[in-house]
Write a structure and sequence with these properties.
two-stranded antiparallel ribbon, Growth Hormone, Chain: A, mainly alpha, 76% helix, 2% strand, globular, 404 residues
Length: 404
């Protein structure tokens, strides 16, 4: 890193790819380990703690509820504390939650550990978005944002083989996740510049940029983004919460195939980094609709043929790639609506994704118990299809001029 210019609060610096890589790793451990691994171990945890599907869904929802609370808090403190401190705290919270899960003697402590671990994802997203907007050159920001966001895929990719190797020793698996989280926390601390962000959590703009860029872009309404994010979160809960249970209970899959499914979801999710070029080619609206249809097809396909190895492989790959790419599109959509309030825009979008997941997870568990997992998957596929139509609202929702 080399000093470049002075901003109103701290010395502006140029950063290399190290910060982007560390940010992707932090997203990976927060999402791939601390948040989504519960679904990977759901059968073992249900057997260990004698949980019903409904109770398992409620416990799984705890991580999403923790996310909702944490992201609001993170949006408030990131401009005051600075991205480095808040991102470092996200890593510490993830580590602590993973440790609690690994040693939990009761279902109550399991739920508490998952809530703490899941909270780390909400803490992490705003400071990383603000850091990229602040310290990465403008032409590279879209690519950097989507690369960091694709860290979820890397986290899921790594968690799968660990789970397979330690299927019968799930506490050791979560302990391994905790060690990885601690290492990434140190990495983010040594690579991210210190100092505070601007008062609104935005990136520094040059004086010759159009004044319209200093406000919400062209007065564009945020409502379609928020609704689309909610529908995406609601549609994704079937696979994230019940995906492994579906192919194990209704498809008689063994541990190897179940682990392969999770690994493929993560590997394909890394391709979510391509959401930036996709948006540049067909725009936010087109990208969102195409990817939501892909998410719907993958979810329905898994329910249609849970015994088919080919369908499991294709469905897992399509779902993983579509999900991570959708979060990347939501991120870029938010930065366009709030070009000078990056952390706020991204935080609001990701909050609505988590709200959808928090509401959907317990309903998915209850629905799975009463009607079967396939029914839940078909319903979520229908929600995804409806969500593909939401961007049309951009052209029919009246724009509201933002206040000065």
């Amino acid at each position: 890193m080399s000093a470049a210019s002075s901003g109103p609060f701290f010395t502006k610096v140029e950063v290399g790819p190290g910060m982007v890589a560390a940010g992707a790793a932090l997203i990976g451990i927060c999402y791939g380990f601390a948040r989504f691994s519960y679904g990977l171990f759901a059968p073992e945890l249900q057997a260990e703690f004698d949980l019903t599907g409904a109770v398992s869904g409620v416990i799984g929802a705890g991580s999403y509820v923790g996310y909702c609370v944490a992201i609001v808090w993170s949006l408030v403190v990131t401009p005051r504390w600075g991205p480095r401190r808040v991102a470092g705290l996200a890593g510490l919270v993830a580590t602590a939650g993973l440790v609690v899960v690994a040693v939990a003697p009761t279902a109550w402590l399991l739920a508490a550990g998952l809530l703490v671990a899941g909270s780390s994802t909400g803490i992490a997203s705003p400071p990383l978005a603000a850091a990229v907007a602040r310290w990465v050159r403008k032409p590279s920001q879209d690519r950097a944002q989507t690369l960091v966001n694709a860290g979820t895929g890397m986290g899921v990719l790594v968690s799968g083989p660990i789970a397979f190797a330690l299927t019968d020793y799930w506490r050791w698996a979560w302990g391994t996740y905790a060690v990885g989280a601690a290492a990434v926390t140190w990495w983010i601390w040594v690579t991210m510049p210190g100092g505070r962000a601007l008062a609104d959590g935005s990136s520094e703009r040059s004086a010759d940029e159009p004044s319209s860029c200093r406000r919400r872009a062209s007065g564009e309404s945020a409502l379609p983004l928020l609704l689309a994010s909610f529908f995406m979160g609601l549609a994704s809960v079937a696979v994230w919460t019940l995906g492994r249970e579906l192919i194990v209970t209704e498809g008689d899959a063994n541990a190897l195939l179940a682990g392969l499914m999770w690994t493929l979801m993560g590997a394909a999710g890394i391709a979510g980094a391509l959401s930036g070029p996709l948006v540049q080619r067909i725009g936010v609206t087109g990208s969102w609709s195409v990817l939501m249809i892909a998410l719907a097809a993958a979810t329905a396909g898994l329910a249609l043929a849970p015994r088919s190895i080919a369908m499991i492989v294709i469905g897992a790959a399509v779902f993983g790639g579509a999900y991570i790419a959708l979060t990347g599109v939501a991120l870029l959509w938010a930065t366009r609506i709030y070009p000078e309030r990056t952390a706020y825009g991204v935080g609001a979008s990701f909050l609505m994704i988590a709200v959808g997941q928090a509401l959907g997870a317990p309903l998915a568990g209850i629905g799975g118990d009463r009607f079967g997992y396939s029914v839940v998957f078909y319903l979520c596929a229908s929600v995804a299809t409806a969500g593909a139509l939401i961007p049309i609202m951009r052209s029919i929702t009246p724009s509201t001029a933002p206040s000065e």
